[in-house]
Amino acid sequence: MGKLEYLHHVRKQPKNSLDTARQIIVYYQNFIPAMIEQIYLNIDLDNWDLALEACGRLQSVYADHIDQLLALLVHELLIKGNLSNSEEYMGTLLKALDRDEPLNHEFYFSVSRIVSRLSTKNAK
After folding, report:
1. Gap between the Cα atoms of 45 and 47, Å rounded
2. Quick one: which of 24, 81, 91, 116 has the most CB atoms within 10 Å?
3. Are 70 and 114 in contact (CB under 8 A)?
4. Angle, CA of 42, 65 and 61, to the nearest 5°
5. Can you tell me the distance from the alpha carbon of 21 to that of 37, in angstroms, rounded to the nearest whole number?
6. What is the pLDDT of residues 28-68, one digit of tens each?
7. How many Cβ atoms are within 10 Å of 115's Cβ, its own excluded?
8. Averaged pLDDT of the chain
9. Dihedral angle, C-alpha 100, 9, 106, 54, nearest 10 °
10. How confident is the model at residue 12, as a pLDDT?
11. Pair 8, 23: CB distance under 8 Å
12. What is the per-residue burial (b if ≥16 Cβ within 10 Å, else e) of 70-100?
């Protein structure tokens, strides 16, 4: 994981860090941090199909993980523009936040900031 973080944040090589994440997942199939990094790296490389596939694998290991739900919500808002599914993901995300991070107000703020920046002002 250290090599992955170094390649992604210091060297700015998301493709190499994605390869490292894949290698970690091959050796440790249920290692959630590597799966989360794989989701974010695929989003960073604009590979939404692979990001959704990684979300599905994470769903099979840990149902309703916050990062997975956030990635699905961003996909619905940005790529599909489907507000009805976005509402469902937002409700599930809020339940997951209440379950996993009930006292982390900074995390609530960061999630709400992402959603508010992606939402349109003219939504009906």
Report:
1. 6
2. 24
3. yes
4. 85
5. 7
6. 989 999 999 999 999 999 999 999 999 999 999 998 999 99
7. 16
8. 87
9. -30
10. 84
11. no
12. bbbbbbbbeeeeeeeebeebbebbeebbeee
